[in-house]
Amino acid sequence: MTTVSCGIDVARQLLAALSIALLTFGCGSLPDSPPTSVAPGAGTAAHSSATLPGPQTLQPYDKAVLSAATALFNNTRLPPEGTPVQARYTVVIDPLIDGMTGAQSIATRSMGVRLTTMMREQFPQFEVKTFSAANIAKSPLVLIGTLTGVNAQRQTSGTREAYRICLALADLRSGKLVSKGLAFALPDGVDPTPLAFFQDAPAWSEDPATEGYVKTCQGTKAGDPINPLYLDRIVAAALVAEAIEAYDAGRYIEALDLYKSASSVPAGNQFRVLNGIYLTNWKLGRQQQAESAFARIVDYGLDHQRLAVKFLFRPGSTAFVPDPKLSGPYPFWLKAIATQTSGVTKCLEVTGHTSPTGPEPLNERLSLLRAEYVKSRLEGLSPVLAKRMIANGVGSRQTMVGNGQDDASDALDRRVEFKVIGC
């Protein structure tokens, strides 16, 4: 009996050590074996969770957030060697984002609020302060996170059946990550509707600032360096966060001043800033300034080889929606695309996209017709483009959101993309 008991104790110790080791890796470092961290009281009843292929547990959304956050806070390794022990550590939260689009949503905002509450109520070693340029200058800990729709194989393609919650805590003083948290959530209870700024943004393009944020959070482990694309742009990011908050509150003059301030700091030439300058001028009725700002958006997209524009079409049609509040600026959007493309003698592939609603053969046909319609409008504005553009339709094969809701949450799935190609 004594021998058996010792064997059981050793086995338990080994399992505990293995669990701790897995938790230190975080999301992405072991993509097929992410940790499952269940917070006290979260529960593991069979009726409240399901499993995806692999060992990770798919939990109800609230429990998944709790699991990821508890793992993040409990496994933080501070202070670094050689520094005195501190009673409290300052933490700022860079607003959480969608891991594919970079947008802040109702879900990511509420998650940020919940993380703040958890630190204040359950983890007194952390002192939460505002994400601002002044606080960034003091080299605090920065909490970042992504909420990403994934399919049954944990991939960001096809029909999204779950959400991957990835959290990271970065130490600006050491330039390294000090903790990670990961969980997978059922879609029920997740509201992916973008906040007002991201709903209104006319276009999307790959942005190094967002890329650095995502790469710092995903595919990393505690001890890894902060991605330089994120680190170099964090001061501008703090100004952008304030600007987005002001825009969402309808304080457009204040938001415009903040976007302009962000554009003037090093690494401030971010796509969110260009969208913000356009949107605030448009909201303030400054059409000439808005048109000029949209031309800069087009230039940015051409420089980065890809620009997705949210042209909204009538259902099953190639005609733009008739609502002037939505399609009113489309004529000068098209003019800017034609003018800026003609001026740099670049060639474009104009690609139509649809959401996954309906039969895919029809989606592919409709997406091609919409691309051809936009192409013809551009040719009418600049005939020289006729031999420098091709039209393509991919249906719903390249969704960025993939929830199939056909509402504001997945507007980017119904985009028209302009990709720079060889002439």
UniProtKB/TrEMBL annotation:
Keywords: Membrane
Gene Ontology CC, one term: membrane
OmpA-like domain ranges (all copies): 300-423
Pfam families: OmpA
Full protein name: OmpA family protein
Species assigned in the record: Candidatus Dechloromonas phosphorivorans
Source species taxonomy: Bacteria, Pseudomonadati, Pseudomonadota, Betaproteobacteria, Rhodocyclales
